[in-house]
Each structure stands twice: as structure tokens, then as C-alpha cells.
Amino acid sequence: MSTETIRSRDNALVKQLRRLGQDGAAGRELGLVWLEGEHLCRALLARGHLPALLLRAESAPHWDHAWALPPSVRRVALADSLLASVSSLGSSAPVGFLWPLPAAVAPEPGRPTVLLDRLQDPGNVGSILRSAAAFGFEQVLALKGTAALWAPKVLRAGMGAHFALRLVEAATLADLPALQLPLLATSSHQGQWLHQAALPWPCAWLLGHEGQGLSPELLAAASQHLRIAQPGGEESLNVAAAAAICLHASAVQRGA
Amino acid sequence: MSTETIRSRDNALVKQLRRLGQDGAAGRELGLVWLEGEHLCRALLARGHLPALLLRAESAPHWDHAWALPPSVRRVALADSLLASVSSLGSSAPVGFLWPLPAAVAPEPGRPTVLLDRLQDPGNVGSILRSAAAFGFEQVLALKGTAALWAPKVLRAGMGAHFALRLVEAATLADLPALQLPLLATSSHQGQWLHQAALPWPCAWLLGHEGQGLSPELLAAASQHLRIAQPGGEESLNVAAAAAICLHASAVQRGA
Fold it and tell me: For the tRNA/rRNA methyltransferase SpoU type domain, which residue ranges apply (chains A, B) (predicted)?
């Protein structure tokens, strides 16, 4: 096992990292995910996956021997300032992995699902993936227009939930019937109160754009509309907050 | 009613806006909040408040006459590129208000409360303010170390919830007894399941730092520990997602 040290901004790997950090679509194109920081690396290993490459700051050699990675995993040390300059997170995590991006998959029928309709905010998307994994949902479908699920900011907010879920990007409305699931939507003005409703399991929760909500087509496709009681007044909820409440409600009823 | 037009980067007001956008503490120092965008402006007016100043892009004169503001409200047009350059949100909302920052207030006993213990992420803090307002909580205490509640990114994520809440910044542990409320904390390993617990009202929910959770002092001060069922596995929840679930549970029990 040996470690290469890179100090040049023009190195091919450095250029690749820069692209991965800046461009949400680069991951799909290069077939790689860059997992920055100890937490994400650990979460990947906990799911039984191995990275293609371990990347660490030159000043932090102990990471070469962390986690008992097999010698076959390539180790690269990057000059500290260089690593900081290509970080996508504006911080300089001293360690990270490059991991082959999972191949695109099709939706699988019958699996408890969360569907994202054009969600824009990486923090919201990551938070929802985390809630989905915590509450026993297995599959997330992202309709076209949703933030790239493997983008660095979504990965950071997801805190490892990505590795626990079947992630389907570029899904379309035509994928919905094949799910063979009841489709649940929140609504501000129609349907039963969520806290009084009987919720089916498995199901698919439909979550819509931060400003516009669900598209009319999805609202019409929903088999059940549910309202979250908001006694505080006319205020509305952040979509990831609403999602947490809904997915938790499903998980609790399933357990009862 | 007349509108001043500003095109110079060195104008005193422009300098002030730049500081407000860049520095979370500047608002408190200058005694001003900058509300960017139509939604926040509308939310302020809906609560019966008036701005000190209306700020709009030079290319959008119709904003001078929006909302039937009294002539006493100063109108300023900023050259579009100048407005975009001082925007704190990386976007260029064509309209905004400057509003006198509410004077610092002390916690009020007995009011349904949410306490933030060193929360860092502006999106999380804003989302929690929104949930608090939606679920009938009236007061938010931010312990030292929490993101500035009136910072631009928190305001944006709060979507107007700021104006519905009593916001207490720089709170300390010494403020807790004076609240005269049961203090509720979430825990991953002790206490009752949230969905089976009887929750007191009014109460104060304690929410902790994104990575470290609540401080040991706050955990010890809590009168009740509640667990959120997470059948999906070892995953954890984003703090704003957990907050939404807890505050909703309180609201639902209160209504029953």
C-alpha cells in the first residue's frame, strides 16, 4: 500500500474533483460520487460498500490506515490548501472517498416510496432522504427538475441516508402506475386530518416544489389528500418539515 | 411622495445594505432588518407593521405604489445591478423593506416556547420558526451560539414566521426557570415514545445543535424525554425535521 501525493492544481484527479464539487450533473457524467468528511465515509462502509479511492489532506496521514481498508483501495494525499480549494462544502474535511455512482435503476413496485416533485433546495432534499430512511421508506423517486440527489450539498444534508435507499432519478409521471401503491398528498384545504386518518402501508408520499407545491397532475393522481393541523394560524410549513410529519405518521401506524 | 434614485456604490444606504447582507450581527448593531422579496414584505404588512423604507429595483417602478403604503414611507430606487450586488440571497429580488429591528425582549413566562441550543444552520433555524408559528408556539428562545435569528438566510427560510413570534436572542440557561414550563427533550435512547406520550400544554421544546444535540445541562434540565420511533434503522433525523414532528404532536394533543 502506498500513497500518492498531489500538489498541482493541474493534476487530472484535482480537475475531476473540482468538477464534482461545482457541477451537480458532473457526478452522473463521470460516474463518480465524492463523499467529503468522516461521517459520509463511515456511513458508506457501514452499508458494506468500499470506495474506489481514499483522499486525504497531506497533513493527516493517519487516515491512510483508518477503517482497515484493503490495500487495493488507492490512497491519495492532497496538499491541504489544494484540498480546501476543491472542497464543494466551503469547509476542508481532511478525508473523503471517491465512490462509483450506482447505476441508474428503475422504480420497483410495492416498495414504500417518497416521490419528489421538482424540489429545489439541497438541504430540503437531503433532510427528506434522511427522514425516508429513518421511517422505513425504501425508495425515493425524483421527478425531472428536482435537485440532483448525489450533489455534494444533498449528500451532506442526507448524512448517509443515500446508502440506505433505492434512488431513482429522472423519474416521470408515467412511472407512477407501475409503483402499484396508494399515492398520498398533503393539502391545505381538502381531505382528512393527517392525525386522524388511517394510512395505508406500503404507500408513496408525494412531495412538491417549495413554492408551488405539487403539480396539478400529481394532485389529481393522488388517491388520498391529507391535511396537517396548523392551529397557529395561516402559516405554512417547510416541505421537509411537512414530509417528516407525514412519514413519521406512516411509520407509527405501521408499527401499531 | 417621491422616490430617490441611487446609482453609486459609495452611497451610505448602499453601504448599510451591504453590511446587513454580509454580516449576521450587523442587523442588531444598525437596529435594522432587511426584508428581501415580495413574500417577506407582504408577511410584515399582514401583521400590521409598516416598513421604514421601501427599496426597489430602478426597473420596477410599480413597487412604489404597491400595498398602499402611506406617503411617509421613504421610497428608494436602486440601479438594478447595484441592488443585485448587495443582495444577501444571491438573487435579485426587485423589492424589499428596511424595518426597525424589534427591541430585545425578555422571555415571557407561561408562553408555549421553543428553545434553540446552538443551532447553526440558517435553513434549520428558519424552518423551525415556521413550524413553531404553524403549531401555535408563541415564543422562541435562542441560546448563545445559535445563528442570528434576523440574519437574511434565516429570514428567507422563516417565510414570515418571524413576525408571528416573540423572539428572544442571547438567552441563557438562567432564563429557563422563569419560563415556568415543563421542558421537553427528544432522546434517542430514553423516555417514552413520542406517539404514545401525553404531552403537557403549554410547554417548552428543547432543540439541540445539529451535530452534538442538546448540551448536558439542558438534557438534565428536561422534565420529560421523548423518543421518535425510527423503524428504518439506525438513521437519525435532521433537527428541523425532528422539531416539526414534536411541535405537531403537541399541537394535535392540545386540539384533542
Answer: 113-248
The label of the residue with cell 382528512 reads: A192
Q: What's the confidence (pLDDT) of residue A234?
A: 62
Please check whether residue B206 lies inside any domain of the structure: yes
pLDDT: which is higher, A159 or A28: A159
Record: contact B238-A244, CB cut-off 8 A? yes
Q: For residue B187, what pLDDT is reported?
A: 84
Does A244 reside within a domain? yes
Whether residue A55 is contained in a domain is answered as yes
Arithmetic mean of pLDDT, B96-106 = 93
Task: Tell me the residue range of the domain where B11 lies.
Answer: 3-100
Contact A164 B230 (CB under 8 A): no
In this structure, the answer to whether residues A135 and A81 fall within a common structural domain is no
Residue B60 clears pLDDT 90, i.e. is over it: yes
Distance of residue B128 Cα from the nearest chain A Cα, in angstroms: 8
Residues B118 and B141 in one domain: yes
Chain B residues with CB under 8 Å of A254 CB are 231
One domain, residues B70 and B122: no
Cβ-nearest to A230 among B134, B157, B230: B134
> Which of the listed residues B78, B100, B122 is the one where a domain comes to its end?
B100
pLDDT of A135 reads 96
The reply to whether A43 and A8 lie within a common domain is: yes
Residue A161 to residue A130: CA distance in whole angstroms: 5
CATH of the domain at A169: 3.40.1280.10
Provide the shortest C-alpha distance from residue B140 to chain A (in Å). 14
